[in-house]
């Protein structure tokens, strides 16, 4: 089964089972799911969470409870600017500067109160929380197909802000944990933790972290659209 077949199956299962949550339909996005709050609570019980000061999170609905929990715990949250379209391509959410955490952690609220920063102005990231469509217990991850999560990792890696010691986690519904072998490409970032409302999986992934930005899969058009890529291009 290829990645798109897995996406379609998981999206269908979440919808047909009634486990999908707003926004609807789950198709074509990182799907929200029943129990996202419980999965965030379980993630907050891990050592990786407790020791993290700076967290990079995706902006999607199922990880909204994660972002709120991070700010309430005094952690700084970084989110990528949509499609990395600006030179200051990350948003910093500083809990000391935010009055309304619930608003600040929404997509619209983060754009209003978040401070755009260049990677050079960021500290090393202690924990990455990625959105997923499908995952395996071995740490393979399938996103929605646009490649931005892995690309953001590559950008942070280019600035020495993430590395082998950076924990990469996701929160998902049990129906998103699949038994199939997922095709893994060289630029795919493996997961260290898969957290569902029911369990926490330490993957001990056999997959290597990407060695750097994979320029062979980046079109000239995409490089030109993303200022930070244009500045890093060899």
Chain-wise SSE layout:
Elements: H1 3-17, E1 20-21, E2 32-33, H2 36-43, H3 47-50, E3 54-57, H4 64-72, E4 76-80, E5 90-93, H5 101-104, H6 107-113, E6 115-117, E7 127-130, E8 134-135, E9 141-142, H7 148-158, E10 167-171, E11 193-195, E12 200-202, H8 220-225, H9 227-232
Parallel strand pairs: 3-4, 3-7, 7-10, 10-11
Antiparallel strand pairs: 1-2, 4-5, 5-6, 8-9, 11-12
Helix pairs in contact: 2-4
Q: What proportion of the residues form beta strands (DSSP E)?
A: 15-25%
- Count the strands? 12
If you average the pLDDT, what whole number results?
A: 95
- The SSE string, one letter per element, is HEEHHEHEEHHEEEEHEEEHH
Radius of gyration: 17 Å
Total DSSP helices: 9
Characterize the overall form.
globular
Broad structural category: alpha/beta
Separation of termini? 35 Å
The parts where pLDDT drops under 50 for at least 5 residues are none
Major sheet: arrangement of strands: 6-5-4-3-7-10-11-12
Largest sheet: 8 strands, mixed
Helix content: 25-40%
Structural overview:
Helix 2 crosses helix 4. The chain has an eight-stranded mixed β-sheet with strand order 6-5-4-3-7-10-11-12. The chain has a two-stranded antiparallel sheet with strand order 1-2. A two-stranded antiparallel sheet has the order 8-9. The protein contains nine helices and twelve strands. The mean pLDDT is 95. A hairpin with a 4-residue loop joins strand 11 and strand 12. The protein has helices at residues 3-17, 36-43, 47-50, 64-72, 101-104, 107-113, 148-158, 220-225, 227-232, and strands at residues 20-21, 32-33, 54-57, 76-80, 90-93, 115-117, 127-130, 134-135, 141-142, 167-171, 193-195, 200-202. By secondary structure, it is of the alpha/beta class.
């Amino acid at each position: 089964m290829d990645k798109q077949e897995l996406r379609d199956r998981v999206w269908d299962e979440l919808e047909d089972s009634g486990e999908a949550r707003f926004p609807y339909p789950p198709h074509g996005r990182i799907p929200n799911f029943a129990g996202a709050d419980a999965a965030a609570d379980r993630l907050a019980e891990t050592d990786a969470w407790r020791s993290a000061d700076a967290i990079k999170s995706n902006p999607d609905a199922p990880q909204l409870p994660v972002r709120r929990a991070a700010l309430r715990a005094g952690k700084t949250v970084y989110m990528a600017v949509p499609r990395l379209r600006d030179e200051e391509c990350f948003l910093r959410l500083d809990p000391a500067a935010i009055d309304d955490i619930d608003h600040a952690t929404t997509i619209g609220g983060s754009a209003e109160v978040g401070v755009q920063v260049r990677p050079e102005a960021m500290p090393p990231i202690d924990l990455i929380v990625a959105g997923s469509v499908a995952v395996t217990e071995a740490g393979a991850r399938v996103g929605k197909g646009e490649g931005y999560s892995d690309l953001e990792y590559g950008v942070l890696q280019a600035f020495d802000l993430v590395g082998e010691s950076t924990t990469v986690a996701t929160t998902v519904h049990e129906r998103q944990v699949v038994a199939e072998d997922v095709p893994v490409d060289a630029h795919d970032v493996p997961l260290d933790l898969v957290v569902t409302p029911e369990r926490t999986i330490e993957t001990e992934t056999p997959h290597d972290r990407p060695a750097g930005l994979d320029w062979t899969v980046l079109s000239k058009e995409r490089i030109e659209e993303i200022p930070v890529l244009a500045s890093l291009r060899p």
